[in-house]
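ugh finaly. both done.
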Amino acid sequence: MDRLAERASTAPRNKIGQFFKETAKEVLVALARNPNLQERDLLRLLERKDLPPEVLREVAAHRETAHHYGVKLALARHPKTPRMVSLPILKFLYLFDLVRVSQTPAVPADVKLVAEETILKKIETIPRGERISLARRGSGRVAAGLLATSDRDLILAALDNAFLSEAHILRVLAQQDLPPIVVATIAQHEKWSQRYYLRLALIRNPATPLPRVLAFLPDIAVNDLRDICLDRRMPEQVRNYVLAHCAERLGKKPPAGLSGN
């Protein structure tokens, strides 16, 4: 094994092919240290998803890695790359390669999270067209981060993102000082305006247009309507409409002074 590892560490390029299928960690570590490896050799090695972390650390330290962007990207996307290796690489990646990292299933969750945070930090510096493309193609968290804007096209692109979830939108609707156009667009959206818990959040949001609130009321349980009336953010006029609606459905006389009955 020692002799095999020594050969792997010094073999010329025309004789290294036999080592790429080795399973012994010692041999793979030695191969990753081989100074004769070039970019395509390192990429070939990184195609193996079963590499031990020690091998990936050697690939990261290889002199060729510093000069080749593709190797850095492959390291960032490899499921076994140690965090101390992959996290520093993220700040050097292009915007849409960060998207690829965040959407690679096997990448650890904490690495994806840092990739998403890196993307969101770059948002203000990228052109509008790229932001719209990012809103469509990015992760759900990135799309949600792009929703807090007055740009209607950007809002619509984010709402059509395949990775965006109801939970993401609920967190957006809970934000303070959210541009009213965001709330109004969600309230009109063909898909999201049909979700029960989003309707609850929209009814209690002061920026939701009153006609949309009234359209949502018949499909909401009376107990849920009563609960959301406790939200102090709800405008008094909307609260009156909601309470009057509840009283009507229960066959009771609305409380005195309520409008909208």
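ok and the 2nd:
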Amino acid sequence: MPSESTTPAGAPVLSVRHLSTDFVSAEGVVSHALEDVSFDVLPGETVGLVGESGCGKTTVLMSLMRLLPAAGRITAGQVLFDGVDLLGLSERDMRRHRWKDMAMVFQSAMNALNPVYTVGEQIREAILLHGMMDQKGADRRVVELLDMVGIAGARKSQYPHQYSGGMRQRAMIAMALACLPRVLFADEPTTALDVMVQAQVLELLKRIQRSMELAVVLVTHDLGVVAEICDKVVVMYGGKVAEYGPIDQVYNSPQHPYTQRLLEAFPDLNAPGDVLASIPGYPPRLNALPPGCRFEPRCHKRIDVCADVPPKLVDVSDRKDEREWTRAENPSFRLPPSSFRHVAACHLCEGPEATF
């Protein structure tokens, strides 16, 4: 069971509002890693963050956890957990939320695990740090957690180098779940794993999510993984949200040219003869961003205004989906508007300016 929830029924457990993050080099050069990022995560929902390397996906997670390196600083926005703005908390108060309310599976399990401590000691430390139980209880909990992720409890006394890559990733998941969080951040959880182990890790995440009613924010490059396990997707480019919405709407009716190109570059088993699309050029440097749309230099649909005027997020939601779900599933219950919100930042999109 997850930590006790105080979130009203149908409300997001996590709301990110206009989040902006900069990195400042030793020479004082400022790189705008994130700008005006907004999205919601409902209890039990999986939200995928996708985009090319360097677009800001991992920086989003590190900003939400307030684990940025010394050069990073959050310059604007709110991160609302159960209505509490985590960015306004002291570091001491923020520690009470890490691992207990929200936890993270880091990208490289070999680097994230301490090589001089046993896996069991590292999992137990998180439990004891938050005062959830005594030493004996923590030892029993470690065995339960390892068993949950498919690792024999007897291997708790082994060191990370004695685990395979897949086992280390499972151990990281066990550690993240040690304090029964309600939100799990997973940063490329299948990196450097072979295809079969990737499938096993993803299936494990789905099973645990269902059993614990976890909300999950998943960073990945794999559009197939997003299509399979995510409810909503945030497409990022150059530190900004290019498109955001329910997975069906974004995949079946992509509105931003960048999203369109990403999906066209993904192979379709039903059309094996199709030529895959490519995107010429490179993503922008975050310390030398173009004045207009950040995708404009590479965009196949650019118009004159794109070079000088940054586009605003426009609401392109299909309200028909909302009406059909409400009528077909449960007329007495309505999902919050964020469940159906589909927005895109493109001058070619028509609709009212999106509000968050």
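summary for the 2nd one i guess: Residues 195-212 form the longest helix (18 residues).
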